[in-house]
Amino acid sequence: MSNLKIRDVRVITTEPDGIRLVIVKVETNEPELYGVGCATFTQRPTAVVAAVDDYLRPFLIGKDPADIEDVWQSSYVSSYWRNGPVLNNALSGVDQALWDIKGKLANMPVYDLLGGKARDAAAVYVHSSGRDPQEVEDKARAFIEDGHHYIRVQTETPGYATYGTHGAHPDVGLQTGPRVVTDRVEDADPDTLYAHPAGIFEPRPYMKSAVALFDHMRSTIGWDIELLHDVHERIPPIMGVELAKEVEGHRLFFLEDLFAPEDNDYFRIVRQQTSTPLAMGELYNNPHEIVPMIKDRLIDFIRVHISQIGGLTPARKLAALCEAFNVRTAWHGPGDTSPVGHAANLMLDLNCWNFGIQEYAIFGERTKEVFPGCPEVRDGYMWPNGQPGLGIDVDEGLAAKYPFRERAYGGAWGAVRRADGGVVRP
Ligand SMILES: [Mg+2]
Fold it and tell me: Do 17 and 90 belong together in one domain?
């Protein structure tokens, strides 16, 4: 029993570069001893703020911050209903902050608390997205110049909306189907939204453009660079089986989110038909969704978003489960994982033997200023800074200069639809 107590639990919200970030700061009764954790659920950030302020804060004040496991377990069941993204992200903010505090107390980086490093740095993959294969190739070549070896490639499908190409023309897809898209979210000023482009999506043209992109990349860039691709769950499952088989010869590093979590059992089908490596998991937030995928070796890479499952405490256990079945980690790391979340990812990347790859979003300059100690990437690897805890902080004064902007409909994602008007997941 230490005399250390949680004095306060506060939420810091900030949007330095157009993405709403939520950070939890746990303060102790020892002056200057605090920790930070990522609680970013950028599509519903204020719901997470309420979950922390109204429920976790009063529940945790006065508790011993050393007892991370007890805090996690008791908080997890304190709502009785559990495993949703709002509550899991709120819990992650507290959990990562407690690991940060423990590291500062021990004067060790968190990867040392976890058992030490299994590698010196974490290989990252970056995103090359373009209007056509040539633009994707040009961007990929620039990344290769910078020392990158793993590149996710996404191209637009002419005339349709496609995932992962943020430069999509505003009118893409809207003229294609019989249905005129008039959802108000989609008509909103795009500058007020952080959302994927809405529009019309059809699986067959998408599949054709994706395969043409892989053909282009292999015939121009060659075979020495690892290529990755995200299907984003948009195509009917049996067409996903077809796509995974068709691209086997392109030797992707992985094909991501071939099916939606609701279609998990399709992995049993595709697994018997192709050796295309499969990555899955950013939408998982419940152990029931995850455990069968690991123990039955249905995927090659677990893509869980660490704050989405409740923080480092459940993620390190999941990583250990994956090690037993030789499933590698590929923690979700887009721009809507805060730099604090990236620092937490890095702790596991360094510690886990079964690390596979780390997704990396290139942070904006303002974001780097708000988060001193923001993980650095050089020559295709993310490197630790060796500081105690997570090795990252939040400049609260600077963070306050970038409050959340007003967004139409709270920043809801625009719906992507089939040509007949039916909604496409997600
Ligand atoms: Mg993804």
Answer: yes
Quick check: helix, strand or coil at residue 207?
helix
Asked, for residue 333, whether it belongs to a domain, the answer is yes
| Structure-derived torsion over alpha carbons of residues 278, 281, 287, 290, reported in degrees to the nearest 10 | -10
How many angstroms does the Cα of residue 49 sit away from the middle of ligand 1?
25
Please give the share of the chain, as a percent, with pLDDT higher than 90: 86
* Residue 250 annotated in active site: no
Average pLDDT along the chain: 92
What is the enclosing helix (H) or strand (E) of 72? helix 68-77
Summarize pLDDT for 285-315 with one digit per residue, the tens.
Answer: 999 999 999 999 999 999 999 999 999 999 9
Clarify whether 360 is annotated catalytic: no
* Residue 18, in any domain of the structure: yes
Distance 281 CA to ligand 1 centre (A): 8
- Candidates 127, 149, 229, 232; catalytic one: 232
pLDDT of residue 354: 98
| 87 neighbors 315 (Cβ within 8 angstroms) | no
Catalytic entry in 111, 125, 150, 163: 163
- Domain boundary residue, one of 111, 133, 150: 111
